[in-house]
Specification:
Shape of chain C: globular
Largest sheet of chain B: none
Shape of chain B: globular
CATH class of one domain in chain C: Alpha Beta
Helix content of chain B: 55-70%
CATH architecture of one domain in chain C: 2-Layer Sandwich
Mean pLDDT of chain B: 84
Strand content of chain C: 25-35%
CATH topology of one domain in chain C: Beta Polymerase, domain 2
Radius of gyration of chain B: 21 Å
Number of strands of chain B: 0
Number of strands of chain C: 7
CATH superfamily of one domain in chain C: NADH:ubiquinone oxidoreductase Nqo5 subunit
Order of helices and strands of chain C: HEEHEEEEHE
Low-confidence stretches of chain B: none
Oligomer: heterotrimer
Strand content of chain B: under 5%
Distance between the termini of chain C: 52 Å
Helix content of chain C: 10-25%
Radius of gyration of chain C: 16 Å
Largest sheet of chain C: 5 strands, mixed
Largest interface: A-C, 40 and 36 residues
Number of domains of chain B: 1
Distance between the termini of chain B: 39 Å
Structural class of chain C: alpha/beta
Order of helices and strands of chain B: HHHHHHHHHHHHHHH
Low-confidence stretches of chain C: none
Structural class of chain B: mainly alpha
Strand order of the largest sheet of chain C: 1-2-5-4-3
Chain lengths: ~375, ~350, ~150
């Protein structure tokens, strides 16, 4: 705003220009849901952005207090509805940490497989929506085609594609059906070629590169100060991934790298996802190769009454660090359950980095931050 | 076959002269050609909407419309019926007159453009001796309708879209016209039939490849098609100037858009691809085939590339396309002098 | 890998005698509301907890409790900071000056729990509508049951 004021004084003798205020959302093709940004614009240049969220607020944290610990699992599906498996995993592990439950080996492997499949599926949605926000509709369809196969795998194990509700406190709901592993192996074999295809169609496109390289850069300091985590942080050059830094589950057994990019601009935030998907495929292959036999559910009482106390557990979600803070008073219902959602925090940096660009940059920047409104509003 | 339409026209003319007195037959003939052009545009648009969706679908590894009619052929008919049945909404805050007129005026230049297009040998409504000039002049008036729509909607998205249309269409018109100049210099005439005749031995796309490329790029921009679809940029401006339009008014813009695509392709065929000439098949059939090759190129481009950014679009025009087209004219002039 | 947390906590307790004490469970400190800002400043600057991982509040019968989770990047050491607040008018210093990340999270806590953050530049409701009455995550906010 100050900048705009200054300019008006500077142009005192020239025709007066006015800034316009424009509502982007809550219904807008590229806000990825019911998010509203109030843009103050000087022509097409954005001078100020104000975030408005809450249109999808369902009060899941309050609802949790009225449900038992077991009953809350399906609610986590509705947080980041593109990463339901990871939300399941985060909640299940939080409860296991609070209760001190050991999860059987086979269940751990199934969880890793599901988590990495979900990560790829979510990143595919990201690549797809980034492409379509830059009007490359064909890129969108290609990613959707490949994501479909992952959703089919989810369908095989739990009968549902998006709201999986698959993991349980102490393991997973059911063992994988026969035919799952061969199908998964075929997918693992095919995926690298798909990523190469995106590199050719989307990453390598000159128009797309010109529109995203150098747009809305975010320094590592800004990212950390704003609490930005996940791929967005790694795009700024910080090699921080909870799967390596504080391994949860059995992530310490797998050999993979944390890809980083240098500039933290829109293109890096896009490209880091492609690199991460390639690493996820590596983890998947290792998990399939050493997949053990055994039970998939630990001995957990039917009615879960965790000991009194509080616990905070965080996992590396698809959008960033997903945290669950659970306070138990010894009854079968949580006393307080707080969800630290990465999208909500990452969205906070959007006004900061998108200022000064034009509206087309803002659309690309918002797409590159990768928000899911179900998680922002909870 | 070759003279099918020419004969039809001649017999219609004879019939009218026999039945109507004075200068009425001429008037009736003029009306008849307007109706024919209108029919041509409408049938093409109906087909093009279907074709666009099919082309896009096959490029994206899916099937496209396949429910209404055999192979989804009646999809557009269903869409048009749906649009016709929609409520006619005029926003309260809109400038009502301009808002309504814009949806009508947008189609007028599109129809007028076809007056100078040779659809086949001897199949041209008016063979003006300034045919190319007429085409360029009429096509540039389309900008006004877009601006009217964008301004009258009283919506910020529409206004931004309208402004983008003006910036883009006026800018890209310059290289477009300059690219045509090369052809005109070679043919030595602005008359469409002369230009077609001049390509009897060799098509101008061979002699003027750079001009054709410039024409193709600038034409895409003039049509507001991807990657130059900034004015209606769905992801940024919802639908640009058409955001507030619904029902049949919206259909009019749609109609004009596809009509313009046929017109720009038809001019490309006339000026660069030898017009309606070709072996074995009747000339009008060749014309349609060539036009559809051009249209397919436009579609191919749109469904492959992402949208360009506003400032890049302007820079590309003023810093690259315009100097290139000027250089092309210079080289053409030198070549004509030498050979 | 994460650093040993216990020495860090001892260091904090020594630097702020009487205002910081080690919590009941490992890895957490209880801080007096008045000393929150200097403690956080020290944690961020000297002790290297450069990211505010999470910020939330719990409504206990006798008081409100702010729960801050600090994380050090890149070694992922976690520190839990708890602040007990008065039940009648819960007020605590805002951390926006230290971490811009606190901006949206404090607004959320204000909105849902009714904690007032002193010094927050833009303390408005964020998830609930502006004209919403009450703070839904408080225990005295009763959900309507389905009849």
């Amino acid at each position: 705003m100050e900048k705009a004021m200054e300019r008006e004084v500077f142009r005192a003798d020239s025709p007066r220009t006015e800034t316009i205020t424009m509502n982007m959302g809550p219904q807008h093709p590229s806000t990825h849901g019911v998010y509203r940004a109030v843009l103050t614009m000087d022509g097409e240049e954005i001078t100020h952005i104000e975030n408005h969220v809450g249109y999808l607020h369902r009060g899941i944290e309050k609802l949790a207090e009225t449900r038992t610990f077991t009953q809350f699992m399906p609610y986590t599906d509705r947080l980041d509805y593109l990463g339901a498996m990871l939300n399941n995993l985060g909640y299940a592990q939080t409860m296991e940490k609070l209760m001190g439950v050991e999860v059987p080996e086979r269940a751990e492997y199934i969880r890793i497989i599901m988590a990495e499949l979900q990560r790829i599926a979510s990143h595919l949605i990201f690549v797809a929506s980034y492409a379509i926000d830059l009007s490359s509709t064909t890129g969108w369809m290609y990613c959707m085609r490949d994501r479909e196969r992952i959703l089919d795998l989810f369908d095989m194990v739990c009968g549902s594609r998006l709201t999986t509700n698959y993991m349980r406190i102490g393991g997973v709901a059911e063992d994988v059906p026969p035919g799952f592993l061969p199908e998964l192996q075929r997918l693992i074999n095919d995926l690298p070629a798909c990523f190469d295809e995106y590199d050719g169609l989307i990453s390598g496109n000159e128009i797309l590169q010109k529109r995203s390289i150098g747009v809305a850069p975010m320094s590592a300091e800004t990212a950390i100060a704003y609490g930005v985590t996940g791929p967005n942080l790694r795009a700024s050059g910080v090699a921080f991934d909870l799967r390596k830094a504080a391994p949860y589950g059995i992530y310490d057994r797998f050999d993979f790298e944390i890809p980083t990019c240098a500039n933290g601009d829109t293109y890096d935030r896009y490209y880091i996802r492609i690199l991460e998907m390639r690493q996820s495929v590596r983890i998947l292959q290792q998990a399939v190769d050493s997949f053990p036999e055994g039970p998939v559910m630990a001995k957990v009482p039917k009615v879960i009454r965790p000991p009194k106390g509080d616990v905070y557990h965080q996992i590396e979600g698809t959008k960033g660090i997903l945290g669950f803070y659970v306070v138990s008073d010894g009854t079968s219902k949580p006393y307080r359950l707080h969800i630290h959602s990465p999208s909500f925090v990452n969205l906070g940096v959007f006004p900061e980095i998108a200022r000064g660009g034009n509206i087309q940059d803002a659309v690309a920047t918002l797409a590159s931050i990768d928000i899911v409104l179900g998680e922002v509003d909870r | 076959m070759e003279n099918l339409f020419v004969n039809l026209e001649a017999s219609l003319n004879r019939f009218l002269t026999a039945t109507l007195p004075g200068s009425l037959p001429n008037l009736a003939m003029a009306l008849a050609s307007v109706v024919v052009i209108l029919l041509f545009v409408l049938t093409n648009v109906v087909w093009l909407v279907y074709m666009e969706r099919k082309v896009a679908a096959y490029m994206q590894d899916r099937l496209g419309p396949n429910r209404v009619g055999p192979r989804g052929l009646l999809q557009t008919v269903a869409d048009v019926l749906k649009l016709l049945g929609k409520e006619d909404i005029v926003p309260v805050a809109a400038d009502k007159w301009v808002f309504k007129i814009a949806a009508v005026t947008v189609l007028i230049p599109t129809i007028m453009l076809f007056a100078v297009i040779p659809f086949g040998n001897n199949l041209i409504s008016i063979d003006l001796n300034i045919g190319v000039f007429y085409f360029v002049a009429i096509s540039s008036t389309a900008t006004i309708s877009f601006l009217m729509a964008g301004w009258a909607s009283n919506n910020k998205y529409s206004l931004l879209g309208g402004m983008r249309v003006v910036a883009q269409m006026i800018a890209y018109e310059i290289p477009l016209v300059f690219s045509l100049l090369g052809v005109v210099m070679l043919a030595g005439s602005l008359k469409m039939s002369d230009i077609v005749a001049a390509q009897k031995d060799v098509w101008f796309i061979v002699l003027q490849p750079v001009a054709f490329l410039i024409y193709f790029i600038a034409g895409t921009a003039e049509l507001n098609r991807g990657p130059f679809d900034l004015p209606e940029a769905e992801q940024e401006l919802i639908a640009g100037p058409f955001t507030e339009y619904s029902g049949f008014r919206y259909a009019m813009f749609f109609l004009a858009e596809y009509g313009n695509m046929v017109a720009i392709s038809a001019l490309a065929v006339t000026l660069f691809l030898g017009g309606p000439s070709g072996p074995w098949l009747p000339s009008w059939m060749w014309f349609v085939i060539k036009v559809y090759v051009m249209i397919f190129l436009f579609m191919w481009l749109k469904w492959t590339l992402p949208r360009i950014r506003l400032d890049h679009m302007m820079q590309f025009n003023w810093k690259f396309l315009l100097p290139l087209s000027l250089a092309n004219i210079l080289l053409t002039g030198i070549a004509i002098k030498l050979f | 890998m994460a650093k040993e947390i216990q020495p860090i906590i001892e260091k904090l307790v020594q630097s702020f005698p009487g205002q910081v004490e080690a919590g009941e469970t490992a890895g957490q400190v209880m801080v007096a509301a008045s000393a929150l800002l200097p403690v956080m400043e020290k944690a961020k600057g000297e002790l290297g907890f450069n990211m505010l991982a999470d910020l939330t509040a719990v409504d206990y019968p006798e008081n409100f409790e702010m729960v801050y989770h600090l994380m050090a990047i890149p070694d992922a050491t976690m520190l839990k900071v708890k602040v007990k607040l008065d039940k009648g008018s819960p007020r605590v210093a805002s951390l926006v000056g230290l971490w811009p990340a606190a901006d949206v999270q404090e607004r959320e806590t204000y909105d849902l729990m009714g904690i007032f953050f002193e010094g927050h530049p833009n303390l408005k409701r964020i998830l609930c509508p502006e004209d919403f009455q009450g703070h839904p995550l408080r225990k005295d906010y009763i959900l309507k049951t389905r009849s």
